[in-house]
Design brief:
Two copies of one chain form a homodimer.
Chain A lengths: L6 H16 L6 H8 L6 H4 L4 H24 L5 H18 L9 H7 L4 H23 L5 H25 L3 H15 L25
Chain A binds a DNA duplex (30 and 30 nucleotides) through helix 3.
Chain lengths: 213, 213
DNA sequence: TGCCAAGTATGACGTCCGACCTACAATGCA
DNA sequence: TGCATTGTAGGTCGGACGTCATACTTGGCA
């Protein structure tokens, strides 16, 4: 049945899930083939670049899903604190529901591959840039200035990534919930986030803005 | 030179460094052997449990180093904000100095191995418990109540872990510094952290304390 | 002092599994 | 019907983990 099969797309989705749950090295090509039901011989037809190309596609797909998750969580939120909580609930549910296997879709790959692959590194950076942008845009709708919104977005991303690691290590949701609630609470009671407050000592400290963007 | 060689210790130190920089799967036994100068045949004499036992030893060693780092950073600090900054400087220096290869000593292994190995999972949990304890104890010296100190420790650990991921992905220190500075700043200007402030709405929210410990 | 035994350490080897390549089949279009 | 493009199964090569027979050193004893 040649001429356009959906094998490629199915492989990317299966790979994204496996990379997220197990990581890059623990996921064999044969695992992706089995999970997707794709034929074995097609791999290097669909992905001439091999496993790394498959990873690149999976990373981009993860970027899409993160953006969608932020958008979904933002519905009905009235401030950064409630957005953090809404996102935290979504992530916590998936973490618990998967038996502490499903964390961030790209974190494992970042740590495994970023030091080795300049190419994939730029893909990772894109995903975080998209995530940062989605969060910052949402924060700005609540009258947070762009600079502070970016700083806050970095802090929020970091807490989510890190809390996932700590909770996955302990196989216990409490560290995650404590970190998320602590962040939401701090952010909620921080008046300097809002535009018009003392800009002499802006949130995020002095001279610490992005140099590359 | 049989009868007590230091091969075992050297292998653990080399493995800890390699696991930290490259991760578990990307580090071959032969890499550890080469880096430590130990002979190939000694591996299963010193580590009958194989690579996993070597990893367990390396994880414990990482726990020691983290405790020492917290103690070193705490010297001369007058509050949680300055401790966060001091730790941040130490970590940032190593991250930059290593070309964004040296992050958290165990984070990569947590994501790679925690879903698969119940045994190593408990080792990871021990390291984070030690780290949490070291931070919380230090916070308590600044009149922060034990419950809030634990919540704050989880938040701090999460920010460090997550910020390392984001910065390693981008190969840029700015996201790390933004997150650390944002955290330090929030913590510094949070009066509810101190004992004696309105305990009706404690920092960290309600009903979110550790259930297992 | 010379020898033996036990524990210690080691280089060479086997086995398995991973990614990747090559030769072949099937289909749509001219 | 013939050809180019798409899709496929089996096979190969390399490397990593783990094992084994062997050599070396130390301590005790005659």
């Amino acid at each position: 049945m040649p001429r356009r099969s959906d094998s490629r797309s199915r492989m990317i989705h299966a790979a994204a899930r496996l990379f997220r749950d197990r990581g890059y090295y623990a996921t064999a090509f044969s695992d992706v083939i089995q999970a997707s039901g794709a034929p074995r011989g097609s791999t290097y037809f669909h992905f001439p670049g091999g496993k790394q190309e498959l990873a690149r596609e999976a990373i981009a797909l993860a970027g899409d899903e993160i953006e969608q998750m932020v958008a979904a969580a933002a519905v009905g939120c009235e401030g950064p604190g409630s957005l953090v909580r809404a996102l935290g609930d979504m992530v916590a549910d998936r973490l618990e529901g998967s038996g502490y296997r499903s964390g961030c879709a790209i974190a494992t790959m970042v740590l495994e591959l970023a030091p080795q692959s300049e190419d994939l590194s730029s893909e990772f950076e894109k995903v975080f840039a998209r995530w940062r942008h989605a969060l910052a845009r949402q924060f700005e709708t609540w009258r947070i200035t762009p600079g502070r919104a970016t700083d806050l977005a970095d802090l929020v991303m970091s807490v989510f990534e890190g809390a996932l690691i700590v909770s996955r290590a302990a196989r216990d949701i409490d560290p995650f919930r404590r970190a998320i609630e602590g962040l939401a609470d701090l952010v909620e009671h921080e008046p300097r986030l809002l535009a018009g407050s003392s800009q002499a000592a802006p949130f995020g400290g002095a001279g610490c803005h992005q140099g590359t963007g």
